[in-house]
Design a protein that fits this description.
The complex is a heterodimer of chains A (97) and B (163). Chain A is an all-alpha fold and 97 residues long. In chain A, helix 2 runs antiparallel to helix 3. The longest helix of chain A has 33 residues. With 163 residues, chain B is mostly helical. In chain B, helix 1 packs antiparallel against helix 2. Chain B is flat. Chain B starts with a helix and ends in an 8-residue tail after the last helix. The chains are: A mainly alpha (97), B mainly alpha (163). The interface between A and B is large, with 64 and 72 residues.
Chain lengths: 97, 163
């Protein structure tokens, strides 16, 4: 029960961070907190369902994907900073595509 | 049970501090702290393998990555910091309120999550499950790792100067 409430609260914190901030690094931190909420949700589901092996397998997969996403996103943030000399999302207005 | 509740409250508080804190460096450290507390939750819930991954990767590698990005990007000037602080307070004042109200609402509503738990526990080991039953996940992980490596290579490739 408390674990489920924690999942919801972590999700709210992550979403709020992404919505309220203008800094790209803080957006990534919000995304990271969202992933933590999902991880806790999976572990809680495995604990309730008595199937912790599957939950652990899925959590390990999530962690691997999380690392790759964060590495590439950090590279993108550095590229944006190199190009615009700023990390403010409001300054990035020249996207083409 | 009360210790578990204490740890989960600590987890939410750590996440809140990560988001609300002034400096980005402290945010990265707060993220590591959140991951470490989540690791304790995992160990207590009987997921040691996932806990070890969480501790080594999410509490170790990712904060280092964030700190590297922070140190490679240009810090704000004093004027920008003062201006940023004024706006920041306006933007983030609602978050602790929302978290507290939601937490109290959930506790008082006493929502019952009806879960039909199986009677017998699935005794299969996580390692054998990952290697024998979910090989497709491992294949996906390998593909994603390679795409990440190629993505970073493309992002940091030195561009040839024209002319």
């Amino acid at each position: 029960m408390v674990s489920a409430i924690s999942v919801v609260l972590l999700f709210v914190i992550g979403i709020y961070c992404i919505l309220a901030t203008h800094n790209l690094i803080r957006v990534l931190i919000g995304l990271e907190i969202l992933i933590k909420a999902v991880t806790l949700l999976l572990i809680t589901a495995g604990f309730i369902d008595l199937n912790m092996a599957l939950a652990q397998g899925l959590v390990i997969t999530i962690i691997v994907i999380e690392v790759v996403i964060m590495t590439v996103a950090a590279g993108v943030v550095l590229g944006i900073h190199r190009h615009y000399n700023s990390l403010d999302v409001r300054n990035i207005r020249k996207l083409k595509g | 049970m009360s210790l578990d509740i204490f740890i989960l409250v600590l987890l939410v508080l750590a996440a809140l501090w990560t988001v609300m804190t002034r400096s980005l460096l402290r945010s990265a450290i707060g993220l590591a702290l959140t991951s470490a507390i989540l690791t304790i939750v995992m160990f207590r819930m009987g997921a040691p393998l996932a806990g070890v991954f969480e501790l080594s990767v999410c509490a170790g590698l990712i904060p280092v990555l964030f700190i590297s990005v922070i140190s490679l990007t240009q810090p704000l000037t004093y004027k920008e910091i003062v201006e940023h602080m004024k706006v920041r307070l306006k933007r983030f004042w609602a978050l602790p309120l929302i978290v507290i109200i939601l937490g109290i609402a959930f506790v008082f509503v006493n929502a019952k999550f009806k879960v039909n738990a199986p009677l017998a526990a699935n005794q299969i080991d996580a390692r054998s499950l990952l290697w024998h039953l979910r090989q497709f996940d491992l294949l996906g992980q390998i593909i994603i790792l390679f795409s990440g490596v190629f993505g970073v290579v493309v992002l940091f490739k030195e561009r040839k100067k024209s002319g």
